[in-house]
Amino acid sequence: MYFGLSEEQRELAAIVGTLLERRGDSQAVRAALESPAGFDVDLWRTLCEQVGVAALAIPEEYDGAGFSLFETGLVLEELGRALVPSPLLATVLAAETLLALGDSAACARLLPGLAAGTVGTIASGRVTGGEETVTAVGDRLTGTVAVVLDGLAAEVLLVAATSEDGVGLFEVDPSAARLAPVPGMDPTMRYAQLTLEATHARRLHGDAGAALEHLSLAGSAMTGCLQLGAARRALEMTVGYSKERVQFGRLIGSFQALKHRMADMLVAVEMTRSGVWAASYAVASGAADAPDLCAAASSYAGDSLAHLAAETVQLHGGIAITWEHDAHLLFKRAHALNQLFGQPHTLRARLLA
Prior knowledge:
CATH architecture of the largest domain: Up-down Bundle
Strand content: 15-25%
Shape: globular
Oligomer: single chain
């Protein structure tokens, strides 16, 4: 079976890639890291208003573009390639969880804002592969979520909590919650710790169990897209450097041993692409084998990117361990993404079980 992108999908990826080349270069990324938000707010606004990246997977009835999660994955792939900090992953996962919840009133109230670029996030133990740690008594929530993606920037905060009725999904006013920054290995991603102490919340209708299962799958697939983009960046950086660096009077790209290593890097990128695209399409289309495909693709993508990042550092020599070079951002991104929605060895164990 041949699987490729449609003309519209290729154009979407090209538009985002071109925009990021202009406004998401190394200097822009480093400036965004130092900003209060942790990402380029103007670039985020441009991506949402001119390209509609946050609206792609949201149905038209909620002011979305009516495409699918697969198209969103293509955007995340380009963001991963540029190593650009962005709240898109957190916002998309909040929207996907709402859609999976099946609460039309909550969707009508929250999704138009998320489609327009309002930053959203979901606080759940599933983000790091754990269990829910917040408990609900009536409309009051108590507990702590150790890692909340873009929690400090979120204007829409969804919280998964257990109660005597099972697992529910709640909406919490971010200003009423205690959110503290959490340091992480990857400076291009921002995390927060959420603490709730009998905090008032609005329970959203519907059984949240199935919605949170979808969160796990969508999160795994979309994280894989970021990993695929970073894998492409690793290969491009390394091949480009091998065409510039001269050693012993020759370009290092002419050395057979290095050719073999870069050929292996290419194979790893293409294998990652096949798995990640298959998993993203399966989640977007609701395929029955989506859990298996996500586990297989994400476990391979995580290990593959870690290896590619290490090869990038090795083949760039001494410059790769300096702050001025982007290789360290790639290395940190590789290991940080491996902590989201299941580490590779846990995903393989889940697949075998």
